[in-house]
């Protein structure tokens, strides 16, 4: 029997971890590798964060208010009724919600900067129907948090440089952070589509991590019913925290915290 993509999943193991909940919101940590909802390019998948979130919500419907790519871990917010989802959707369109991510990238970017680089719609985007792909404005702010230089010739240089960066997308284009970091020539490690395979393979062999090293760590918003400003935060998944500790970035692991699976 096929599970409907919106039905709750009856299981003793739920990969989502509740970070915050009230009458309006259900906020969870999503692991890397889990789709938020059914996608036309992953038709074979049968399990989705939407199902697991509904299970956490007592079987009642929930409504995702933003996207989180399948390989990205971290903060994911669901509204607990359609009215709340509509309000938050309007806030999202008005850019009243501020998202924060961290990523491990190849090379050393500038200390801080802004990527203002329009992105063309992707051919696998549901909006694409074989017509001309449109260019859309896309802006990302970034801050370099930490660097490391390893005495390993991963590419054509005798040593290899990597950095931990914090990313703030002002727009919400598909794969925006991944494509913007590629544009800067500092691709995110583990990005099979927009990254560099030699560095991805090195991290897999050296640290045992095969995932995209991108995590949603924070979102600032006004509560949809009270109007009070709130900041929601998500700790790091253990695998990305392991890589950061291995690279000597203990301070930042302590700053963000590490998810403690139940």
From TrEMBL:
Keyword set for this entry?
A: Isomerase, tRNA processing
Give the PROSITE patterns listed for this entry.
PSI_RLU (PS01129)
- E.C. designation(s): 5.4.99.26
Q: Does the keyword Oxidoreductase apply?
A: no
Q: Which SUPFAM superfamilies match?
A: Pseudouridine synthase
Residue ranges annotated for the Pseudouridine synthase RsuA/RluA-like domain, each copy included: 25-183
- Which reactions fall under this protein's catalytic activity? uridine(65) in tRNA = pseudouridine(65) in tRNA
Q: What does this protein do?
A: Responsible for synthesis of pseudouridine from uracil-65 in transfer RNAs.
PANTHER family found in the cross-reference section = MITOCHONDRIAL RNA PSEUDOURIDINE SYNTHASE, TRNA PSEUDOURIDINE SYNTHASE C
Q: Protein name, please?
A: tRNA pseudouridine synthase C
- Native species of this protein? Saccharospirillum mangrovi
